């Protein structure tokens, strides 16, 4: 069960990082935030920051 949660955590972290790249943000930075803290926190920060101009 723990392995499935870990894989899901990583998949969601990569999804957040891809979303960050599409919005002009740092792929690596958001990947690190999502892996270290939570994909939910990474997504929340990304939504707050919005697109880079």
Structure, explained:
The chain is an all-alpha fold. It has 3 helices and no strands. Helix 1 runs antiparallel to helix 2 (27-36), helix 1 (2-22) runs parallel beside helix 3 and helix 2 (27-36) crosses helix 3 (39-49).
Shape summary: elongated
The pLDDT mean sits at 95
Q: In percent, how helical is the residue content?
A: over 70%
Spans where pLDDT lies below 50 across 5 or more residues: none
How far do the termini sit from each other? 42 Å
Tally of DSSP helical segments = 3
Could you spell the SSE succession in H and E letters?
A: HHH
Number of strands: 0
Strand content: under 5%
Biggest sheet details: none
Radius of gyration: 11 Å
Structural class: mainly alpha
């Amino acid at each position: 069960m723990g392995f499935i949660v870990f894989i899901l955590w990583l998949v969601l972290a990569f999804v957040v990082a891809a979303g960050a790249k599409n919005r002009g943000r740092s792929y690596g930075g958001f990947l690190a935030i999502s892996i270290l803290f939570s994909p939910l926190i990474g997504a929340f920060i990304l939504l707050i920051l919005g697109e880079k101009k």
